[in-house]
């Protein structure tokens, strides 16, 4: 048996999980999987191949067997906490929870939630960024049920992934240590946010990561397709830079350049109002479940 995670970041997608992964990765008491999203848990019950545009590249990175998954944690030494961050685990809660309980036990669970309207549009612009989405946001929302039936990868489910209540309730009902956080708090005060997570994991909560405040996995429309492809596709120069430049400096350079290269489109007011109405009941139930004020989402 190798080492296995004793905590999981399970989602939601496009809610700051990449930033949280980076902050935890830096902590000397925490070991994070070198693959940010192995997605091993859901690989045990999802159907392959995925059928969406560019889904084959995503699928090629999924860790689908036990031996490969174990090897992700083989370098964990003195760290008290071992974790990974696969954001589809939350969405596929009906199947992922029984699997986690059977093979991982009562592990600690971290959930980060974002205003579902903002999350949906961010997922859409993420796909625009990667050159995979060719419809307008409104057209994509109309096509969502078809995409689901055709077995497109879950990132395409812009609308459906934002119904958090049942997802979160299921994890709260099945695990004894669940930490639910808000993306708004991460934006407002990232140091306080991550140190609160450190407390939850029972590691030194005075630690401040050097990457704090950096933006990761940003969405938007690329101003330069060439620059975007350079950073998102394998190439010889990237491999050379990886050897010569320390990881933290590479991250800083990459995020700075990508931020400058991305422009943010605006969601149409009528589409925003439609989604707010759609999510209203779910948000109100979630607000009561978590005993937090989510009025800003409404």
Strand portion, in percent?
Answer: 5-15%
Q: How helical, in percent, are the residues?
A: 40-55%
Strand order of the largest sheet: 2-3-1-4-5
Q: Count the helices. How many?
A: 15
- What's the CATH topology label of the largest domain? Rossmann fold
Main pleated-sheet profile: 5 strands, parallel
The low-confidence parts are none
Give the termini separation: 47 Å
- In N-to-C order, the SSE pattern is EHEHHHEHHEHHHEHHEHHHEH
By secondary-structure content and strand pairing, the structural class works out as alpha/beta
Radius of gyration computed on alpha carbons: 19 Å
Which geometry do the CA atoms define?
Answer: globular
Counting DSSP E segments of at least 2 residues, the number of strands comes to 7
Structure description:
This protein has about 300 residues and is an alpha/beta fold. It has two domains: about 5-215 and about 270-295, Rossmann fold (3-Layer(aba) Sandwich); about 220-265, no CATH class. It is about 50% helix and about 10% strand. The chain has 15 helices and seven strands. The strands form two sheets. It has a five-stranded parallel beta sheet, with helices on both faces. The chain has a two-stranded antiparallel ribbon with strand order 6-7. Helix 6 packs parallel to helix 9 (about 165-175). It starts with 6 loop residues before the first strand and ends in an 8-residue tail after the last helix.
């Amino acid at each position: 048996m190798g080492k296995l995670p004793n905590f999981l970041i399970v989602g939601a997608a496009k809610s700051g999980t990449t930033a949280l992964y980076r902050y935890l990765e830096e902590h000397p008491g925490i070991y994070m999987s070198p693959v940010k999203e192995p997605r091993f848990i859901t690989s045990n019950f999802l159907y392959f191949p995925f059928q969406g545009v560019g889904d084959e590249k995503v699928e090629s990175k999924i860790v689908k067997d036990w031996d490969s998954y174990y090897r992700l944690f083989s370098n964990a030494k003195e760290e008290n906490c071992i974790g990974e961050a696969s954001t589809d685990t939350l969405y596929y809660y009906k199947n992922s929870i029984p699997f986690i309980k059977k093979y991982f036990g009562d592990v600690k669970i971290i959930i980060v939630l974002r205003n579902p309207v903002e999350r949906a549009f961010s997922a859409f612009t993420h796909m625009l960024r990667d050159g995979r989405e060719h419809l307008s946001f409104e057209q994509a929302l109309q096509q969502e049920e078809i995409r689901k039936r055709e077995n497109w990868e879950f990132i395409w489910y812009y609308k459906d992934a934002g119904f958090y209540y049942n997802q979160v309730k299921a994890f709260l009902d099945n695990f004894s240590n669940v930490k639910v956080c808000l993306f708004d708090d991460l934006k407002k005060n990232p140091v306080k946010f991550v140190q609160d997570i450190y407390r939850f994991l029972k590691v030194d909560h005075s630690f401040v990561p050097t990457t704090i405040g950096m933006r990761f996995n940003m969405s938007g429309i690329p101003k330069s397709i060439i620059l975007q492809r350079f950073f998102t596709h394998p190439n010889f120069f990237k491999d050379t830079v990886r050897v010569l430049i320390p990881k933290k400096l590479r991250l800083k350079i990459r995020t700075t350049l990508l931020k400058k290269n991305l422009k943010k489109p605006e969601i149409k007011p009528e589409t925003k109002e439609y989604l707010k109405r759609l999510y209203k009941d779910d948000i109100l139930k979630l607000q009561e479940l978590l005993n937090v004020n989510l009025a800003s989402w409404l």
